[in-house]
Every structure is written in structure tokens, then in C-alpha cells.
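[Automated response] Your request has been received and processed.

Submitted sequence:
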Amino acid sequence: MPWLKDPVRPKSGRPKLKALGLAVAVAVAGLFFLSGCWSAKEINERVFLAAAGVDPAPPPERVEVTYQLIRPAAVTPAGRSGRGGSSEEKGVWVISNTAPTILEASRRAALETGRKIFWGQLQVLVVGEEVARQGLQPYLDVLGRIRESRHLAWLVVAKGSPAKDILKAESPLEKIPARTIDEQLKAAPVSSLAMPTTLHDFWRTLACAAPCGPVAAGVELVKDSEGKPRVRLAGTAVFRGDRMAGWLDEKETRGLLWVHGKVKSGIITVKLPGREDGEVALLITRAGVERQPLLEKGRPRIAIRITAEGNLWEQAMAENLITPEGFTRLEEEAARAIRQEVLSALAKAREYKSDIFGFGRAFYRHHPREWPAMKPYWEEEIFPQLPVTVEVTVRLRQGGMLSAPIRRR
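Generated structure:
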């Protein structure tokens, strides 16, 4: 019967009010955790830094800092702004000033530019060789403290010229010359003749638990066909601590890369014994390394085993080398050349007393009990006399698209 059914009672609005109140409270509380824009900088109040250079300055100043600043009008595509840059317009503005510190030099540069220099787009830091030999710690310290600095920027050492001249050199391919150095370093694995190093890499090696020798790629100026200065990579700067000790050339640099297992590709040029009528170029396609820190009767030594694969890529002689016997001869010569690159790099590192190979770190990891007794004498006594054996195995897979050299019948 209808009168026996429970009456429909209106639902209370209290739960809805409670939920609404809770939502409002959460929203209000969240406002306290939102970052405002009170400290934001407008983009037109900043000038972006592509590269910086550090050179010594005469007293009473201590450092000369050069800035390669990006000119927005030159790099903005036409049509996106009323001041679109033309192809003939320079993409950067290079200025220099001197000061007791890098930070003060940056503030003085702001007086010249009218804008604050933004370090967050830094691609390359170039240090002059004189500064590098004096020690980089005072100059790199400020970059570690600047909140907006880019720690993945490349660190390079200017060879034979001030850092200022490196940054003033123009690039025929890029409006921003710093990008050319950036691309050169990114392309280094193609030849394995340079060892790119970032600021982070340098700091991490410097802070290594075992005495490790930091390195940085070198750059130098060369004249092109028109007599204009251009920048190119030039070997590797070797450091002992934060002070530069000397240079490795390109082949010695690749010797260092072999030991670190960082050879990705490259050309090995060999000559066959008794043949002076041409050279043979072998393309490395794969490589690996095994390093063993050994203790024999308490005396440390290092055993290095390098394996490499490659192809016959170019030959000047008419003899057909794409045979089992020909490949065996080439493999032996290539192994001999690779071993010589490693030994040459090792000789330089011993001369500089800088463990750029990380052998000390290997003993620290594999022999933690014995390492504390070796550490105080590592750089001065143990590393320069450390016995190192180098074994190299090379395997050639093919001779490219040819089964025999092209020659006249």
C-alpha cells in the first residue's frame, strides 16, 4: 500500500558543503607553494652567452674575460620579428674586459651591454694556456657557484694563442662560432683524435678518490685558403691536479682513448714491411678494452688487452690484399700501430706524472685494502714506474665493396 512505503527524505547538503570547504582550503594552501614571477627576468633584460674565454691580465687586474654574446636580431629568422637578421649580419658580439675576478668582470660587462649576461646557454669555455698552467681552480670555482651556469659546457684550452683570439675567429658555416667548436667536439668520435671534456667531467675527475689526471681538448687557430683564421681541434691538454702539465698530439690522444675504451671509429694507416709503394688505410668499426690492476708479491702492474675490428678501406698499391694472407699481414701491422699509440701516450703521462688513464682508480676499486699504502706515493713514484703490458688483437672483416683493387689489365 502506498501509505506503508517509507517517505522519501531530502538528502542533507552537509557532505557537499564539507567537500566544497575542503577543496577551497586545499586550493588556498596550494597558493603558498606556487612560485611567483616576482624574481623573473624578462628576456629582453638578458644577453645570452654562447662562449667565454679566460686569459691572464696585467696587474692590478688578474683575469681578462672575453664574451661571445648572441645578437638576437642576427639569429632571428626574417618574418618572426620586425628586425629579422640578414645573412651578412654577424650573429655574435665579442667583448672583453679585465677584473680581479670572473664575477666582477661579468658585472662590468653588463655596464657595456646594458643587460645581464645569462650563462645558461654557455656552450664552450676557452681557457688560455697560460691560465691553464697557473691553475684552473680559482676560475672554475665561480662557475660551480653560479646558479644558472651550464655544467655540460665544453672545456677547451687555447693552444698557441689567447682564448680571446679563439672567440674572435669567425666560422664560415655558423653565425655563432661557438656552435662550430661544439659540432667539432661532437664529431670527435668519428676520428677518435680528440677527447671532448665538459666542465662536469673535469670537476668529477679532479675530485676523484684516487689521484687522477684531468684532460681537456685543445683548440688552435689556422689560416684558411683566404688567409682568415679558423678554429680547429688540436690534441689534448694534460693536467696534474688543476694545473696543465703538457700536451698530447692526435695519435697520443687516440692512445689515451684506446685505454679508456672510447674509440668508436677512426682510420689506422699502416705500411707493409718491405713495401714503400703505398699506404693502406683501415677503418675501425668496433673496439673494446680490458684493464686488469694486478698485485704480484705486493708490486702493482697493469695488464691491458685491446680488441678492434675493422675493414680495409683504402690502398694505394696494386697488390691484392683482400686475401687471408693479406688480412693477416694488415692485422699484425694495425695491432703494432695501436700498441705504439698507447705506449706513446703512456710515456707522455709518465713524463707529466699525471695518471690520465685512471690506473690509480682501478687499484682503489679492486684492491681497497692495499690502496691506502700506495696512494701517497702514486703520482711521484709508483705511476711513473708502473709496469704496463699492452696486448692488441685486430680482426679485419671485409674490404668494402671491392673484392680486389682496381687496376689496369
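Summary generated for your ticket: The chain has two domains: 42-248, 249-409. Residues 324-352 form the longest helix (29 residues).
If you did not submit this request, please reply to this message.
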